[in-house]
User: Which sequence fits this backbone?
């Protein structure tokens, strides 16, 4: 597996643990719907959370969260609509970004941005 894939996998595991440690119930990991994928789908306080995890080993070109493009947001919206349709969820939803930034010593910083964006806005 390529190094960037290893980094992404480690970041997703860290993000999942972060959510669990903060009282979130993890419903899905890497949920796919046709051409779209949501890294983590969680539930807390009657809210369904669709989370994109971005992991980087440096921030020379920007913070990890800066790489959640409008196209990715649109794909997440598409997947969220499908997930809501399939599960019948009718309460609040939100879109979060969980940014993981590693340093050269494998230490990391987690930045959980709640309600980071609303697709289409």
Assistant:
């Amino acid at each position: 597996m390529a190094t960037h894939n290893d980094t992404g996998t480690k970041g997703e595991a860290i993000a999942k643990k972060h959510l669990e440690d903060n009282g979130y119930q993890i419903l899905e990991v890497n949920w796919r719907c046709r051409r779209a994928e949501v890294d983590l789908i969680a539930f807390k306080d009657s809210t369904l959370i669709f989370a994109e995890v971005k992991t980087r080993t440096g921030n020379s070109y920007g913070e990890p969260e800066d790489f959640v493009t409008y196209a990715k947001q649109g794909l997440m919206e598409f997947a969220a609509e499908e997930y809501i349709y399939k599960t019948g969820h009718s309460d609040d939803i939100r879109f979060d970004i969980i940014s993981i930034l590693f340093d050269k010593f494998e230490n990391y910083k987690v930045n959980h941005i709640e309600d980071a964006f609303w697709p289409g806005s």
Q: What stands out?
A: The CA atoms of residues 25 and 43 lie 5 Å apart. The chain has one domain: 3-116. Strands lie at 25-33, 36-44, 47-56, 92-102, 108-117.
